[in-house]
């Protein structure tokens, strides 16, 4: 099962490589210069703009490195109606598909949303820290590919297309470091009485799952007694599903993998 890719806007916006799928019935990949192969994406940031554009709804989701263009098609789609109701600005998470096409000789990148969730600032900060781990791992693999100690086809193809060098890798590392420099570490958040929501949700899931899993409403109700907001629980569940830590065996239920 392919999980959703986590990537910062500053990296995604530099993408120029699209790799078509072997199976014509499946979507292709947008490949970033940091080595992320994006098909299904999980992004988080601040919803700073919502604009009607004909039958489309264009949204801007900003993180500390830049912004994603999120485009919802169809005026009466459920996802479009949900996005219209969210106040600007708000922190959100979005699961969607990576899009790339050419227009007037320029590369146009966007994310087509499939699910959106409003979150609090503490959850946004926690997700930033989690997101930062992924590009650093990918950049280490690209460094190994440059040094000839990595034979991964995707890493090698990324290096060839973008002519990746060590200075370019260091530049991307600095971008990640800058993105999280003002974020409070999780250990400090917990010492201030803010729990690691993903860990708490996973612990409850593992302890309370029956044959068909555990009801999402049961998790929300249980964790509300610990002072954890419904929005943060739902965002954590979405994050865990995107990371293949759990799945939905049926609507309204989740179960650890």
Q: What can be said about this structure in brief?
A:
It is built from nine helices and eleven strands. It has helices spanning 9-12, 78-85, 121-146, 153-162, 166-180, 186-191, 197-208, 216-224, 230-242, and strands at residues 17-19, 29-31, 37-38, 40-53, 56-63, 66-73, 90-103, 106-119, 214-215, 246-247, 253-256. The strands form three sheets. A five-stranded antiparallel β-sheet has the order 6-5-4-7-8. A three-stranded antiparallel β-sheet has the order 1-2-3, covered by helices on one side. It has a three-stranded antiparallel β-sheet with strand order 9-11-10.
Explain what this protein looks like in three dimensions:
The protein has helices spanning 9-12, 78-85, 121-146, 153-162, 166-180, 186-191, 197-208, 216-224, 230-242, and strands at 17-19, 29-31, 37-38, 40-53, 56-63, 66-73, 90-103, 106-119, 214-215, 246-247, 253-256. The protein is of the alpha+beta class and 257 residues long. It has a 5-stranded antiparallel β-sheet with strand order 6-5-4-7-8. A 3-stranded antiparallel β-sheet has the order 1-2-3, covered by helices on one side. It has a 3-stranded antiparallel β-sheet with strand order 9-11-10. 34% of the residues are buried. The model is unreliable at 187-194 (pLDDT under 50).
Key structural traits:
single chain; OB fold (Dihydrolipoamide Acetyltransferase, E2P); Arc Repressor Mutant, subunit A; 3 domains; 3-stranded antiparallel beta sheet; 9 helices
Cα radius of gyration in angstroms: 19 Å
Shape: globular
For the sheet with most strands, the description reads: 5 strands, antiparallel
In whole angstroms, the N-to-C terminal distance is 11 Å
Strand fraction equals: 25-35%
């Amino acid at each position: 099962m392919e999980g959703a890719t986590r990537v910062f806007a500053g990296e995604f916006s530099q993408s120029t490589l699209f790799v078509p799928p072997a199976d014509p019935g499946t979507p292709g990949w947008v490949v970033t210069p940091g080595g992320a192969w994006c098909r299904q994406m999980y992004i988080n940031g601040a919803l700073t703009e919502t604009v009607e554009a004909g039958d489309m709804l264009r949204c801007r989701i900003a993180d500390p490195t830049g912004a994603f263009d999120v485009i919802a098609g169809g005026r009466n789609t459920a996802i479009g109606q949900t996005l219209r109701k969210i106040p600007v600005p708000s922190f959100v998470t979005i699961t969607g598909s990576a899009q790339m096409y050419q227009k007037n000789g320029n590369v146009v990148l966007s994310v087509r949303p499939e699910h959106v969730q409003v979150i609090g600032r503490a959850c946004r900060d926690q997700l930033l820290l989690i997101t930062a781990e992924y590009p650093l791992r990918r950049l280490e693999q690209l460094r190994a590919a440059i040094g000839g100690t990595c034979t991964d086809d995707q890493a090698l193809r990324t290096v060839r297309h973008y002519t990746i060098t060590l200075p370019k890798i260091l530049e991307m590392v600095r971008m990640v470091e800058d993105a999280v420099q003002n974020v409070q570490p999780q250990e400090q958040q917990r010492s201030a009485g803010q729990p690691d929501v993903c860990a708490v949700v996973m612990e409850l899931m593992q302890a309370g799952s029956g044959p068909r899993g555990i009801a999402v409403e049961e998790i929300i109700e249980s964790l509300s007694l610990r002072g954890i907001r419904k929005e943060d629980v739902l965002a954590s569940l979405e994050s865990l599903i995107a990371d293949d830590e759990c799945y939905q065996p049926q609507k309204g239920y989740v179960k650890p993998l």
